[in-house]
Every structure is written in C-alpha cells, then in structure tokens.
Amino acid sequence: MKLIGSLTSPFVRKVRIVMAEKKLECQLVLEDVWANDEVQKFNPLGQVPCLVMEGQDSISGAVFDSRTIVEYLDTLSPVGKLIPGSGRERCEVRTWEALADGVLDAAVLVRMERVWVHRKDGERSQAWIDRQMGKVHAGLQAMEQGLGDKPWCSGSHFSLADIAVGCCLGWLSFRFPELDWRTPCPQLARHFEKLSGRPSFQDTVPQG
C-alpha cells in the first residue's frame, strides 16, 4: 500500500499514527495538493490522505477520507484494536473522532480564510473567522468535559478517540501557536502531553 499525504495534514497524521500503532507497513508519498492535481488520479476530490492499494493505479484501487481509511486499517491486523466492534463503545469512539475532526475542519477554514493567496485582504471575512473559531472553542470545551479525569477518552484503554484528539490538539499547536487552549482545558493539556510521549506521535510531529 501507499499513502498519499503531507507532513502537515492532521488527517494524514491520524492515518500514519494508526498504521504505526497497528504495525502496518506503508509507503508515504508526499503530495502538495495546492501545487498540483496529481492526487486526483486516485481521489477526485483532490484531498489527502488517500490510501492506494498495492498494485493499483486508478481511483477504483483507492480509499479516501481519513475516517474511512482508519476503519479499514483497523481490520487488517488484530494488533492494538483501536475501534470497538459494535455497540455503544464503538459509537463513543467514533463520536470522539467526529468531534476532533470537526474542530479541525473549522480551524482549517479559519486558516484558509486568513492565508489563501487567491483571496484579497478586503475579501476576508472576520465574521466568518469568528464563527468558525466559536466552533473550535466549543469543541475543545466539549473534549475537556468529556475527558475529565479519565486516563483515556473512551473506555479503559488507548483508542482511535485518543489518536483523533491528539492529532487535533497537535495541529492547533502547530498552526495556531497564539491560541492558548491549555489554560482553559488543563485535562486536555495533560492528555496531550501523555499522548505526545508515544513513539507513533513523536514520529509524526507536523512539519512544514
């Protein structure tokens, strides 16, 4: 398999961490989706991450969207099961992932509104930025309350919920260094520090 992605995308990082935790081998192919359209050969949406199956060279041999990819990867090896098989536990883990990804979606929209070169300064909307940042803050508070003093986001062990939250917090620290989320969210800060000590997180710190 090969994973098309970048070293800055939190969604690519989520997939890479899952692969590391599952001890799955995969070739990482770096792609700048803003500089070329090569990834559209496999993902018509032109987004990363995109997982291409071994020996495949077309859209029919690819899996895209990080949530779909990690769910597939979790089935490939019994090592370190990250998503419960069914029931309320599975729903809880996927809800944590949706929350973390939703915070990222809002933060990405803020970043694009601020820095996208094809939008002139007079065309940038502070009202839009404020609306998206409201989602970021609300999402972080929901994570803080949901985590509380528990050792893990969901259940009694490390799961995809923790990976998604860790990738979210790591990207916010990377792209929004001025955002002090640690002070109002001390439990999240504690959890992030713990997650950051895992080799899978250390080996995938955002770069660029």
Automatic annotation (TrEMBL):
Residues 86-208 form the GST C-terminal domain. PROSITE patterns: GST_CTER (PS50405), GST_NTER (PS50404). CDD domains: GST_C_6. Residues 1-81 form the GST N-terminal domain. Pfam families: GST_C_2, GST_N_2. This is Glutathione S-transferase C-terminal domain-containing protein.
